[in-house]
Amino acid sequence: MERADLLAELGHRVRERRTERGLTLRELATRAGLSPRFVAEVEAGRGNPSVASLAALAEGLETSAAALLSTPAAAAAGGPRLLALLGLRGAGKSSVGRRAARQLRLPFVELDRRIEEACGLTLDEVFALHGEPYYRRLEREALEAVLREKRPLVLATGGGLVAAADTFGRLRERAATVWLRARPEDHWNRVVQQGDRRPMADHPEAMAELRRLLAAREPLYALADAVVDTSRLGLEAATRAVVQAFSRKGARGGAEAV
User: Of 22, 57, 65, 124, which sees the most CB atoms within 10 A?
Assistant: First the structure.
């Protein structure tokens, strides 16, 4: 691996591990006894830490220097570089994605979080201030940024990405895609269990609208390489099915149901 690629990969892993641990950049710097500016340079792929600094970063992240530098299993096996999870909110993309990423020893990335980081707004603010077309542009830009990283990872996409033909096509070119299918009731209940009661606020037809949206998008989701039914399988079995589907990569041109 070229030096620049090695530093970029190290930076990605430090950032992803920090995010998984729920640490701010400043908190990690304090834990590691390093300056926030230096940690930011490392995460950007520009810093070249000494052995001692790398060990301090690893300790602050509760991992080892070897783990930060190790080759992910999927890449070592020559498998697909990117696993993308599709589905409406409440499908289980975050829960299954994080677990699958741990099993595959890959970083986990949520595309919507990347969008928020890039524009400095929450998704609600993006839609309220600028509308859906602006969000779709940010979504495509965020996806292209992820693809330029050229590293193995597990990606949770936004629920409506499949409706943007160019963006979805680009994703399918570069990733093994898995649709996490769930019953409408499970989509609804999972969102509410996360503490978000907006689906039912002042919207008596919300469940009917959810059913219509799911029915309209099912043909697009079904273009995925594999389909994993999280309602039928549950969290742990669904995670195993996603990992297995990633290993096989599915058959292009039709979804493989699990």
Answer: 57
What are the two backbone dihedrals, phi and then psi, of residue 82, each rounded to the nearest 5 degrees? Answer: -135, 130
Query: Taking the CB of residue 142, how many other CB atoms lie within 10 A of it?
Result: 23
Residue whose C-alpha is closest to residue 223's, from 258, 256, 182, 184: 256
- Inter-axis angle of helices 36-43 and 3-20, nearest 10: 120
Percent of the chain scored above 90 by pLDDT? 36
| Domain residue limits at 243 | 74-257
Q: Is 121 exposed, middle or buried (0-12, 13-18, 19+ CB in 10 A)?
A: middle
Q: Are residues 95 and 64 in the same domain?
A: no
158 & 197 share domain = yes
Q: What is the CATH number of the domain that holds 132?
A: 3.40.50.300
**CA 99, CA 189: separation in Å to the nearest integer?**
20
**Which residue shows structure tokens 């999972």?**
190
36-54 confidence digits (pLDDT tens): 999 999 988 888 889 999 9
Give me 79's structure tokens: 């498998």
Model-level pTM?
A: 0.65
Domain stop point among 25, 51, 69: 69
What is the C-alpha to C-alpha distance for residues 139 and 109, in angstroms, rounded to an integer?
13
DSSP H or E segment with residue 86: strand 82-86
Into how many domains does the chain fold? 2
What is the DSSP code (8-state) at residue 155?
A: E
Structure confidence by residue, pLDDT tens digits, 61-79: 988 888 888 755 545 544 4
Which tokens belong to 192?
A: 């509410």
